[in-house]
Amino acid sequence: MINNQKNSILIIIVLIVMVLLSGGILVWQYFKTLEKKGEALEEIKIARENKMEEIKITEENKVEKLNEIYPKFLAMEACQGISQGRTSEKIVALTFDDGPNKEYTREILSILENYNIKAGFFIKGKYAKIDPELVKEIFEKGHIIGNHSFSHPNFIHISEQEIKEEIKKTSEIIYKITGEHPIFFRPPFGACSPLMIEILREKNYQIITWSAMTNDWDPVTAEHIAQDILRRVGPGGIIGLHDGCPSMMGGDRSQTVKALPKIIKELRNRGYRFASLDDLLNISAYSPTNDSRSQSHE
Question: What is the largest distance, in Å, between two alpha-carbon atoms of the chain?
Answer without folding.
Answer: 128
